[in-house]
Amino acid sequence: MTLIGRSRERAVEALSLDSPDTRNALSAALVGELADALAACDRDDGVRAVLLTHTGTTFCAGADLRDPPAPDAVVGLLRSVVALRKPVVARVTGQVRAGGLGLLAACDIAAAAHGAGFAFTEVRIGVAPAVITLPLLPRTDPRALARYYLTGERFDAAEAARIGLVTAAGDDVDTVLAPVLDGLRRSAPEALAETKRLLTARVLEAFDREAADLTALSARLFASAPAREGMTAFLERRDPPWVV
User: SUPFAM superfamilies from the xrefs (predicted)?
Assistant: First the structure.
């Protein structure tokens, strides 16, 4: 069973997270399959850009708590999006949580429908948004990140656009993306690659400098007693004991 749908229209390869039963959570299998699909797009001269989208009502629910990927696999996936020679455009029409926000931030351009919703829910289950900080901090308003990282509050697509998490929001996400994809199709492939290299240099520096420490932090927190209790409470749909 494939977890990534693939289609192509006028040199734009659409990769669709296609595990709606798990709300497109980042399982070990989905992370591996998406990384392979991205690598194939990078090698294919017929691909001008990648459109990352989803099936179902959730773009990505974050880490799959029943089949979590290794932290270094998540880092590798996020880095592959940032380092891909082709622009990666995210199309969001549903909910995005936790690690899914890191995937969104790794993309070069992102558009969300007004019905989309976002939340950094890590603190509520006893962990921290560690490795996803790598693409998020260089691209998102730091004061807003402090609020949403620390509280786990939900926010809407307009707020996501205001703080730089997404590029634009609108009632019809495909209308928002139409001029973006047209512009990419009109651009020379070599020029796109070099321009993306300029734009992502600082983000890749953060990966090179901080990835090892953040991977270790993520592994330590996920193995901790509070995280085990928090994840159990989440799966059992109850509050963990620290809620007052």
Answer: ClpP/crotonase (SSF52096)
